[in-house]
Structures are given as structure tokens and as C-alpha cells.
Design brief:
The structure is a single chain. It contains six helices and no strands. It is mainly α and about 140 residues long.
Length: about 140
């Protein structure tokens, strides 16, 4: 194992958990590891899901700016340049735009910082058509 996880629970809960695990021939640590692994597997988003959310976020920003025709070509050009050269500046420009427009920043926007392809999906949404709904 690589690391430990320390949690606080009541003494009574810990003792009950250990007793019940023992009665079922289970190791408490493996039970907790299994629960964490299952939780992560269930809630972790795929790259495709993140890309789709970024497209939607870009499209929603487009709509907040007044539609595709109202999105500044200079703004898009600057974002494209930053997507290629400086992901930090790319993300900063997006965040500043949301703040300037007094909009809530979608949490998925932070994912645009991680990969070039993700920043491109945001840009595609910013200049693209309305996203299709899942069937």
C-alpha cells in the first residue's frame, strides 16, 4: 500500500464495525478500500463525459455573450493561442470572462486546464452549434 487514510468515527461505531466484520470473516481495511474503489468507479467521469460538459459550458458562455455572432473573434483567437501555448492563461481568461459577466463558473471549466483536447472542446462549444441532447 502507498498511503494511509485517517478518519474520525465514534469508538462505538468502530467497535461495532470491527465486530461485524470479524463475524463475517472480513478485514475492515479491505472493506473500506472496496467501498472507496466502488465509489470512485461509480462517480468518476470519463474523458468523453468531461469533453461533452466542456462543450456545453462553452456553448452556455456563447449564449451569455449574446450568441455565436456576438462572440468576439479576437476573444476566440486569444483563447486559441493560449490553448496552444499557455493553458494557465487560457483558463485565467475564461475565468475572468465569467467573472466580468457575473456568471457562475461551471466546475468542469477547471478540467480545461488539464489537456489541450479539453480546452479545444470548450472553444468548439464557444463558437459551435447547440449541443445535442443525449437520447
Amino acid at each position: 500500500m502507498d498511503t494511509n487514510l485517517h478518519i474520525r468515527i465514534s469508538k462505538e461505531l468502530k467497535e461495532n464495525f470491527q465486530q461485524i466484520a470479524k463475524e463475517n470473516n472480513k478485514d475492515t481495511s479491505s472493506l473500506v478500500r472496496d467501498w472507496i474503489s466502488n465509489y470512485v468507479a461509480e462517480h468518476q467521469k470519463s474523458d468523453e463525459d468531461i469533453a461533452a460538459e466542456l462543450y456545453k459550458a462553452g456553448y452556455q458562455l456563447q449564449q451569455s455573450l449574446g450568441g455565436r455572432e456576438e462572440v468576439s473573434k479576437e476573444f476566440v483567437k486569444q483563447l486559441q493561442e493560449y490553448a496552444l501555448t499557455n493553458q494557465k492563461e487560457f483558463t485565467q481568461l475564461i475565468l475572468t470572462t465569467y467573472l466580468d459577466l457575473d456568471l457562475t463558473i461551471p466546475s468542469v471549466v477547471s478540467k480545461a486546464y488539464n489537456k489541450y483536447a479539453f480546452s479545444q472542446m470548450f472553444l468548439f462549444g464557444l463558437i459551435g452549434d447547440k449541443p445535442k441532447e443525449k437520447v
